[in-house]
Amino acid sequence: MKEWVRWPLDVTLGIIFSRQLISYKIFLAEATAYLVARRILMNNESRVLDMARHFHSQTDPRLHEDHGPLTIVAGEGATVTDDAGNRYIEGMGGLWCASLGFSDSRLAAAADRQMRKLAVYHTFNHRSNEPTVELVEQLTALAPFDHARVFLVGSGSEANDTMVKLAWYYQAARGRPEKRKIISRFGAFHGSTIMGAALSGLPHMHKSFNLPPLPVIFAARPFHYLDGLPGEAEHDYATRLAQELEALILAEGPETIAAMIAEPVMGAGGVLVPPENYFPKVQAVLRKYDILMLSDEVVCGFGRTGNWFGSQTFGMEPDMLSVAKGLSSGHLPIGGVIISDKVYQCVADEAHKVGVFGHGFTYSGHPVTAAVAAEAIRIYREIDLVSQARRLGDYLHAALADALNDHTLVGEVRGRGFIAGIQIVEDRATRRAFAPELRIGTDVERRCREHGVMIRNMGDVLAICPPYVIAPKEIDYMVDGIRAALDETAAAHARTDQSA
Question: What pLDDT was estimated at residue 34?
């Protein structure tokens, strides 16, 4: 590699031009070679630095030291581009969050305006700022209950932690401090903080972390496809889960349980869609034993299931709900808890006795993140987000059904609104799963990228959660890429079986 590749652009081009005055064509060739070489060098240097210094989330660090990152350098609409110039349809909205795509000019302008006016302030000790007030007003207008209050935080994990603390505070204020246990569900994901991880029913979120003992108990996940009994109809399955929940509550003691937390659709647990009557039956059990319902809407909020909130889609009547991700279309980190009047009034009375509500974060109600979130909600209203989600969801699910319902590796395509999951199985008839060590889902996800499609695999489930700005032809491209990846994986697996 020529040494001038490492020199600054203006210096190098000047030298090249001075040497090649007699031939403009030679100058262009040399300059082009320099730019290409410099791009490769910079990409390689960035890659090496990432491999050597960056400790990634939800990643095998030893594998990363060997393989390195996929570096994304640009985004537009529903597409992103990597540092090698490869362009992908981003079928996961990043991490379930880029509702308006990857480069929205209005959100950028909202951040710029607020940065120039008031870049940072806090909401402790009765302080506030205009964007926070505007955002709170918009969220309470959308809330699925009257007289709501909003507590803003920096992430979905913080929002779920806050809901748990509020549930404890609420029960203590009512003279029932012994009601501390939180019911979660196997397969759930509720965050990566200590409490968020404790609430998450995913083994890798617990193993080797040596989490402290926390009052969390787990109920069954609603997964009729794999967990239903032979011949058991979905409504009977839901009844059985509600009965099992009641048995769990009675075994633990209703007087010890503060709340149950649940995602309307379980995202990281495999895009698990509950039976229609599941949540109404669960809600009846919780009311019977004076247990709060906390709805984790971090993934399902803002239109994803075909309503503003997933709880509205599935008949939940939560006492509190958490939001994040789509709240700002993922453009800046922000989350919040929407609190029912029943909970707020009790908590406020208790905090008044204490003299202060002793909870909060430096970035609760940050003016820039609040300004971006408020602008995102304005855009959602302008595009009629709920209708858009239903329309795109209908198109997506029809396309997936046409392409995959007959595929030998696909046991089930499920979802609601504009979110979907594809269940990969080794045997469709028996619903037998592949051996985990084969990492079939990982293989399919890799092959999808080779076809210009970004999705996410959770084991042998492929998750799809696209931006609302995706075009139908891009959905078609995405589905075609998934089908091609599944075809290639099936063929490779068949060859492996034959050679064995």
Answer: 52
Q: How confident is the model over 402-427, as pLDDT tens digits? A: 999 999 999 999 999 999 999 999 99
Render pLDDT for 81-109 as a digit per residue (tens, 0 to 9).
Answer: 999 999 999 999 999 999 999 999 999 99
What was the pLDDT predicted at 46?
A: 87
Within 8 A by CB and 6+ apart from 141, the residues are none
**Other CB atoms within 10 A of residue 5 CB:** 17
Give the Cα separation of 44 and 48 in Å (integer).
Answer: 6
CA angle (56, 61, 65) in 5-degree steps: 105
Q: Taking the complete model, does pTM exceed 0.70, yes or no?
A: yes
Instruction: Evaluate whether 355 touches 187 at the Cβ level (below 8 Å).
Output: no
Neighbours of 425 (CB within 10 A): 20
pLDDT band of residue 25 (cuts 50, 70, 90) is low
Q: 89 — phi, psi (to 5°)? A: -75, 120
